[in-house]
Specification:
Layout lengths: L6 H10 L4 H10 L1 H12 L1 E2 L3 H4 L14 E2 L7 H11 L4 E4 L14 E2 L1 H7 L11 E4 L18 E4 L10 H8 L6 E4 L9 H11 L7 E7 L1 H8 L6 E6 L9 E2 L5 E7 L3 H10 E2 L5 E7 L9 H9 L9 E6 L25 E3 L9 H10 L5 E3 L8 E2 L4 H6 L5 E3 L2 E2 L10 H6 L4 E4 L8 H10 L4 E4 L5 H24 L1
Parallel strand pairs: 1-3, 2-4, 3-5, 5-6, 6-7, 7-8, 8-9, 9-11, 10-12, 11-13, 13-14, 14-15, 15-16, 16-18, 17-19, 18-20, 20-21
Helix pairs in contact: 1-3, 2-3, 15-16
């Protein structure tokens, strides 16, 4: 049975459903019953900590320039009690560096945390904070003021993790049993720096309750530690070193895995994938980043990587992205992705940036391999390699397909109604193609309107955007005229 809500719970629901802070403030002044719920909702989330420091009287704050708050004296017990009365209500703090157009505000510092540490050294500022996000680009020593239990979600896009003895790193260890989500990116340092990777891996290895991890780089031993967690559901990281281990990596409840491999470490990615044991994994996203290298992924590397995932038969989503593409380009072919074709449960297949050459016969093979596909992006490397009739196997074998991306050649001249079966057999909502030239003529718009009456056309070539918009507009106008002529006239 469902229990009835008590009056305080009803008032709390009402307060949290109000988006306007002025209304909440008015509610807090209306009656004593609304006071606590309204204040809880007002202070639940802060976009910066300035309002907290402004709770102290002006006599305790220095006359600093706008945007810079400084404590100049120790708060009394009464003043600290007032601060705590509001601070204990803060659950989410998003501390983002503001972007100013005015040159005089380029040196924005926000709160002078050194002064806060000086006059409130033993205080926990936000005792009930569960989410902290920051990209603050100064020293991170004062982060520990917010990294305290019961913190559950932590996002830092700039953090000097090189010294394991700084207070912020020590504070993180105290959150080992409560932290559920960790996102840390080392900006301003070489992400391949061994000391930075070691420090970050050490921090990750202390966590015991993580559900989501999104970090730049991890050592193999940190990955092995995460594999032992029975809570981890989502993992994003970059492969930096190859340890040569062959022991399994069991992730019992992992649902999503995103791994990036730099050119010198591509074998490390294959090694991890072959050791992966994740019965709950549904989404696997791989990214190839050549960095300063001048090579795109070779066909041999594609075969090796895709061969390492053929045991993940329960996957629903697979993507392989190439961060940048430089010459020379070695294109892959259908046999290079043959291992992927064995995963018949796939619904979302994204090979959008993979140099992939397809022959007409390959489409039939793909259609039979992935009958449940709803999104199929097969690369934008070679223009005009396929004709529209070559896509007919998809209409017959993939009835759920709604998004299709293929390098397509659209004829400059055609006969209306030449493909009636195709036009009704593939109800696309979006068609991505790299075709150019005659493909973006007015005739092509009519052709696409007949063939894909519900699809919006997208292009990988930014120079073709105007032509694409014209096609979409012309296609809609053609359909409207057809409907009017058929049903109204």
């Amino acid at each position: 049975m469902h229990r009835c809500l008590c009056i305080t719970e009803v008032l709390r629901v009402i307060a949290y459903s109000v988006d306007d802070n002025d209304v909440l403030f008015s509610m807090s002044l209306t009656c004593r019953a609304f006071l606590e719920p309204a204040l809880d909702a007002l202070w639940y989330e802060l976009s910066d900590p300035d309002p907290l420091i402004e709770l102290f009287p002006k006599s305790k704050r220095g006359a600093e320039p706008k945007g810079h708050l400084t404590l100049i004296d120790t708060p009394t017990e009464e003043e600290w009690a007032r601060f705590e009365y509001y601070a204990r209500r803060v659950r989410i703090l998003r501390y983002w560096t503001p972007i100013y157009d005015s040159p005089e505000l380029d040196d924005w510092l926000g709160v002078d945390w050194d002064s806060v540490l000086q006059y409130c050294p033993e205080k926990q500022l936000l005792p009930r904070l569960h989410t902290f996000e920051s990209d603050f680009q100064l020293i991170s020593d004062w982060y520990y003021l917010f990294i305290q239990p019961p913190l559950r979600h932590l996002t830092l896009t700039y953090w000097e993790l090189l010294d394991p003895e700084i207070p912020s790193v020590e504070a993180l260890h105290k959150c080992a049993q409560t932290l559920e989500s960790l996102e840390v990116h080392i900006i301003g340092w070489d992400v391949s720096d061994p000391q930075a990777i070691s420090s970050l891996s050490h921090v990750v290895s202390q966590m015991r309750a993580l559900k989501i991890v999104n970090v730049d780089n991890l050592l193999p031993q940190a990955v092995a530690h995460l594999a032992g967690l029975h809570t981890l559901r989502e993992l994003h990281f970059s492969v930096e070193t190859l340890d040569g281990a062959s022991t399994p990596l069991p992730f019992p409840v992992l649902e999503r895995l995103q791994v990036k491999a730099h050119t010198p470490n591509v074998n490390a990615l294959t090694c991890i994938l072959r050791r992966l044991q994740a019965p709950a994994l549904r989404a696997l996203e791989l990214e190839y980043d050549p960095g300063q290298d001048s090579h795109s992924p070779t066909a041999a590397y594609v075969r090796s990587t895709f061969g390492a995932v053929e045991h993940l038969v329960q996957l629903h989503k697979f993507s392989f992205g190439v961060r940048t593409r430089r010459e020379p380009v070695e294109a892959s072919r259908i046999d290079d992705i043959a291992s992927l074709l064995t995963l018949r449960s796939l619904e979302h297949i994204d090979l959008d940036t993979l140099p992939l050459v397809l022959a007409p016969a390959d489409i039939d093979r793909i259609a039979r391999a992935w009958p449940h596909a709803t999104t199929l992006l097969l690369g934008n490397w070679a223009d005009g390699t396929l004709q529209l009739p070559d896509l007919l196997p998809l209409a017959k074998s993939c009835p759920r397909l709604r998004t299709l991306g293929v390098p397509l050649a659209i004829p400059e001249t055609f006969k209306l109604g030449a493909l009636p079966e195709f036009g009704t057999g593939l109800p696309l909502r979006e068609l991505r193609t790299s075709a150019d030239g005659p493909a973006f003529s007015e005739d092509a718009a009519v052709f696409l309107a007949c063939t894909f009456p519900c699809a919006q056309l997208q292009t990988w070539n930014q120079d073709d955007q105007d032509a694409v918009q014209r096609i979409n507009k012309t296609a809609r106008e053609f359909l409207q005229a057809t409907i009017k002529r058929k049903y109204v006239a």
